[in-house]
Write a structure and sequence with these properties.
Length: 413
């Protein structure tokens, strides 16, 4: 396995960094640039050697191929769907509605989270349902590249996404961006993508899932401010949240065959759940890349209550690092709460073997990096960087630009 090659660049002068933050807000819709008393945008970049970037891209594409093959097999075997820790309403729809699913029609977007370790790169998860990071991977990377000599921005996933949808929906196609409208951090992603899609000749509309109805397997917008039948839907509303909506008629077709292009279809939740590895032993499809890169994953009950610092507890459907328990990192009080929940609800949790993340040295001390690699319809499409003070990359982590170094010692202009 290729050794991890990654370093942090020097911080930009404060004036230049603040200028980039303002441009990120207005040019790329990075509205949540501040969290309490600190910026969520790091003042320095992460630099990848080109060979390392190519390795991550190729590996993400292999992981995507294997994941989609596994998904197809799981959908045809309801007994496996039942073991993935999904809400009952979703499990029933997946067991009944997707057995003959034709994924080639949809636009599939994933983000694989890579971490450098002493043994090379490892992955912690795939964000296969509603992956975020488009604003930062398309905007913050590009802005930083303008101020950096000897390095360039990776491809922008937002541009690749727009091209992929236009290829399926056609020029002048109508795209609905369905999201949790009360969350500004979700809204900014949809607004950013809608801007990008519009530049590619697509018509756009931002909606809640409650604004949709379905007739003859086709989506129809029914609300006070918009109407029509979208050719494609970009969903940024987590699948496990959908059953919380009062009217199932607005969302259950995400889990069935439709004539409307979906991105992502509801079956993506099968790969999003951290319990996905627990059914590997029963799959016929190849998942060798996953086995090589994802740490050993077990049922919580197999630990027999013996949780030590070699294991990590994860909720099956946790996002943004929430609910993760690591002895010595998570506070003792929080770890006890997590362990208690996992004990009482073992089907909603997993235990994963812990790996050591190699920190990168920055001007303010060591930081723990994560490189998210996007794939869109199976092709690598850009990098999303985050960096944290602890090995848990959660909501307290900073977004950090990822640049491809074309020479040693790349420096700010």
């Amino acid at each position: 396995m290729k050794a991890a090659v990654l370093q942090a660049g020097k911080a930009l002068p404060r004036k230049d960094w603040l200028d980039l933050q303002r441009r990120a807000i207005f040019d790329f819709c990075k509205w949540d640039s501040q969290c309490e008393d600190h910026s969520v945008l790091a003042p320095f970049p992460l630099l990848l050697e080109r060979a390392t970037a190519e390795f991550l891209n190729e590996t993400a594409e292999a992981l995507c191929r294997e994941a989609l093959e596994a998904e197809t097999e799981i959908l045809r075997r309801p007994e496996l769907v039942a073991r993935l820790g999904l809400p009952g309403a979703l499990r029933k729809l997946l067991e009944e509605g997707f057995r003959d699913h034709a994924p080639v029609r949809d636009v599939r977007v994933m983000r694989f989270d890579f971490h450098p370790t002493p043994d090379g790169w490892r992955i912690s998860e795939v964000n296969a349902d509603v992956p975020g990071g488009f604003v930062e991977a398309s905007g913050w990377n590009a802005l930083f590249a303008e101020r950096w000599s000897g390095a360039e921005a990776p491809p922008a996933p937002s541009e690749a996404y727009a091209r992929a949808v236009r290829e399926k929906a056609g020029t002048n196609g109508f795209v609905a961006f369905v999201h949790a409208t009360s969350y500004s951090d979700d809204r900014q992603v949809m607004y950013h993508l809608a801007r990008c899609f519009s530049r590619h000749g697509l018509r756009t509309c931002l909606l809640s899932p409650t604004h949709l109805r379905w007739e003859d397997q086709r989506a129809e917008i029914r609300c006070a401010f918009a109407s029509g039948c979208p050719d494609a839907i970009v969903r940024f509303f987590p699948a496990e949240w959908l059953p919380n909506l009062r009217d199932a008629e607005c969302w259950k077709m995400f889990f069935q065959e439709t004539s409307t292009i979906l991105s992502n279809p509801g079956c993506a939740i099968l790969l999003q759940t951290k319990r996905f590895p627990l059914v590997w032993s029963e799959l016929c499809s190849n998942h060798s890349t996953w086995q090589m890169l994802l740490p050993e994953t077990r049922h919580v009950a197999e630990l027999n209550g013996n949780l030590d610092d070699s294991w990590v507890l994860k909720p099956a459907l946790g996002r943004v690092g929430e609910g993760i328990g690591i002895q010595g990192i998570t506070t003792e009080k929080e770890l006890q709460t997590i362990a208690r929940r996992a004990h009482h609800e073992p089907s909603d949790w997993v235990a994963q073997k812990r790996f050591e993340i190699l920190p990168v040295l920055t001007e303010t001390g060591p930081k723990y990096p994560c490189i998210g690699v996007f794939t869109i319809n199976g092709k690598a499409a850009g990098f999303y960087g985050r960096i944290a003070n602890t090995p848990i990359i959660n909501q307290n982590a900073q977004d950090v630009a990822v640049l491809i170094s074309s020479q040693e010692g790349s420096v700010a202009l």
